[in-house]
Amino acid sequence: MATSSEAIGVLGIPAEEALRPRRHWTRSALRMARQNPLGTFGLAIIIFLAVVAVFAPVIAPYDVGEYTAGQPREDMSWAHPFGTDDIGRDMFSRVVFGARISMGVAFLSVLAGTAIALVLGITSGYVGGALDNFMQRTVDTVLAFPQLLFLLILATILGPSFQTVVFAIAIGIVAPVTRIIRGAVLSERNNQYVEAARALGATTPRILFIHIAPNVVALAIIIATTLLGLAILAEASLSFLGLGIPVPNPSWGTDINRARNALPFHLPWVFFPGLAITLTVLAFNLLGDTLRDLLDPRLRGRL
Amino acid sequence: MRAYIIRRLISGVVILFILSIVTFLLLRVVAGDSADLLCGLACDEEGIEQFREKLGLNDPYFPISLTGEPPFVEFSRDNQYTTWIKDLLTGNLGSAAINQKPLIDTMQQRLPVTVELLIITVIFTVAVGVPFGVISALYRNSFSDYIVRVTAVLGLALPSFWVATLVIYFPSQWWSYSPPFGGMISFVDDPWGNLRQFVPPAAVLALASAAGIMRLTRSSLLEVMRTDYIRTARSKGLQDRTVISRHALKNSMIPVITVLGLQVAGLLGGSVIIEFIFGLPGIGLLLYESLLRRDYQVVQSMTLYIGAAVILMNLLVDISYAWLDPRIRYS
Questions:
Q1: Do B15 and A270 touch (CB under 8 A)?
Q2: Inter-axis angle of helices B80-89 and B296-324, nearest 10
Q3: pLDDT tens-digit readout, A229-240
């Protein structure tokens, strides 16, 4: 740092700016991390949770269905850090395996939903006319209805399962994201570089996917990160209402629902799955905020 | 302005029409009928068939249906879709299949619960979100700003059903206290009991929305403070307090009010969970119970009802927007 700040700037560009591309990527990554401690914290938790989800069988001391793991309703102890549930299953193991479901649902649904919305939004925004009108009225219809109620109805019709939850959340994501992407495409398509591409004889698909899409993708990444947190909350809420991940599976929401219904109340059983949800959603929100500020400061406060 | 409102109302009707088709397709055609479930264990084959006939579930779905032979289309007066729409328009919202009680009566009983819950929630949201958002913006990067921001991010991450469960648990553990469950205590009969019943669920429901409003107020006020007219107001020697209260605050509230209006739709969804946990017999709980019973008749009517409410709400938001910000002209 000391040497670079002493260097003389070229063409009015501060030395630090001019020298930046030569830095090793790890150094710029470290610098970025130092400037955005909250985002880094979020990313660290997400990486940690991803590792937990992938290596769940190694980390968890017991199997999720092992009801001989301990006595029913044990408090926190070294053997069972998060206590046990009403039939003696180790809650620590269940919370660890729950990360798989939570992250799995979130990533699959957001990936699918955002991808569909990207295609629909670009088409709607670029083609325009009657198709755009029809698609946007359809989006209006979906948006005219509370998101959670929509999820509940869809999940009831399809029956509770992992696929249902992923499908329902993905569908719920499509409408609002299509709207945002369409708006971005509308403002991109009037730019001069698009006009230039068309003047050079570029075909519509080429303009769409080579010229416009890359400019919209940054926006899509920001939205997707924010949506991951919301998807995790949605899955937990659905599961809590008994319409998400069905019972024997270690979903955080499902476990809280069971713990709430089985009296007498056993605090660790409710507490730790909820803490896991909070921490995960918090991590995604922090990362989402930071990405938004870094990639597109104009969006500050609008998402 | 009037032309704009009329146009919006027409597009609202179009949206409701599409919504009616979609819910009808989803709940009647895809979900199929649940006559066997609703009729209960006492029903035999014949009883189920009678039940189905009574509910009109044997009629064709739409007024026009396609057939295999010429002329390929068939018109039918007695079809499920138009019967349903007719019922909706005449206020006969259909009846819950389970007890044949007219849905309109049930709605009248339950709507006040949800409305009161939402009103108290919005009051909490504004009373907490706006002042802390303003503090956070005015003392930017200070310790209090930091605390407010961290609280806001946390508020958005907390699952409401978990907080609600703990909010019921801890007082019962420490002081053997529990909010009144089941039924609705009228504010007129027993104001204290009514508040005891509604304040805790509303506070939990307001967590996320207050956090959102806090962040929005902060960023909106910061944005306004950067504008030229604020600099002008400052440079002509006005006190900070005057600049903020008379110029900045008012303008920064415009997006906040918009978002507040839009949040109501989300709160309506969240009220399902909150009403379920606190045993409040409102619209959300009614919808949830109907879903669990597979009483699609009720769900279908309520869907349109809620859709209409949200569309009206959005229209009101847009009108208030123009009223608050004279620069916006709808034509």
A1: no
A2: 50
A3: 999 999 999 999
